[in-house]
Write a structure and sequence with these properties.
This protein is of the alpha+beta class. The chain folds into two domains: about 5-45 and about 160-225 and about 320-375, FAD/NAD(P)-binding domain, CATH 3.50.50; about 90-155 and about 230-315, D-Amino Acid Oxidase, Chain A, domain 2, CATH 3.30.9. It has helices at about 10-20, 55-80, 100-115, 130-135, 160-170, 220, 285-295, 345-360, and strands at about 5, 25-30, 45, 85-90, 90-95, 125-130, 145-150, 155, 175, 180-185, 190-195, 200, 205-210, 225-240, 250, 255-260, 265-270, 275, 305-315, 325, 335. The strands form four sheets. Strands 5, 6, 7, 14, 15, 16, 17, 18 and 19 form a nine-stranded mixed sheet that branches. Strands 9-2-1-13-21-20 form a six-stranded mixed sheet, covered by helices on one side. Strand 15 and strand 16 (about 255-260) form a beta hairpin. It is elongated, with a radius of gyration of 21 Å. The mean pLDDT is about 90.
Length: about 375
Amino acid sequence: MYDAIVIGGGLVGAATAYHLVLGGARVLLADREDPGRATDAGAGILSPEANLRGADPMDRLGYRAVRYYPAFVGRLEIDRAGETGYARCGYLHVAVSEDERGLLEAELTALRRRGEGVPPSPHDSPREVSPDAARRMFPPLGKVAGAIYHPDAGRVDGRLLSRAVRAAAERRGVTVVRAGASRLVLSGRRAAGVVIDGDTVDSPRIVITGGAWSAAFGRQLDVQIPVDPQRGQIIHLRHPKAETASWPILTGFRHHYMVAWPDQRVVAGATRETGSGFDPRLTAAGVREVLSEALRMAPGLADWEIQEMRVGLRPLSRDGLPVLGPVPGVEGVYLATGHGPLGLQLGPYSGKLVAALMLGDEPEMDLAPFSVARFRP
């Protein structure tokens, strides 16, 4: 008998299990380790100021999630969990054409409005920088029509972070099984356990953190979980003479990004292929898209070596917001999925919030806007 079972071992699942065991629960983490899991492919951008989606609950969740990262990583360090790739490196948003310059001006206005009533950052506020300053920060840049620098931003390596969180959870006593859950065991409308490899494992609390695969349990729970895979293709570039350690994250206006790492490497991504299905393949069109946008913004990357290419299936909900909290009408079953392209930014904090609910505590923020009940007909 376990106090809680976590189904799915990506970052959200590992973080939920970790927070549950920190709260004193006896936890089982079941992870099928599906190829194409989004956590293993991503390079996370941590910047609440950059989250201008316009939905107030999402703004609050993003802001708190990024503010939580230093404490979360600090806890992992105490538990000797290993490298996470976390660092505060800044974020540079660049316009490379006059049309994009107009969008940049609109972003500045939105940032000022969004900052009203928000506690000041412990670091510098976002500011406009000159084209020359932008190129000094990120030398491969070409033409720059305008740029905004966000000093209070960071990055994290999804693969390293997920591995560290799982290691910390296991060190704390979480049991990990590398197998999938075929179905839930319910006693009436109450959680009773999970069937894993043909065996029933008892537990009164279950959380589904299966990423793009989470919807498979919807029929059994009599609830619609409209979370589908969205493929993202990412390319790692390297130059042996590049001094990338101090370079900021770079983004433009086409949903692409570049993240620099200290080992002479820049990660360029990513496609957003809605409707891809469960097909974690690199494609010619996807690779062309990523490289074309990277070279449009930073032509100085043209002679860099392609070191590695990755692909992940993001769990994208129908409305783009995460699905967090209890399943209505089924006692003891919870959801933590649907983070889309923001899984690495929101994952640790989402795990903390849902774990608090499962432990009978009051979470730090209202999760009602993220309830699966919003998808009821």
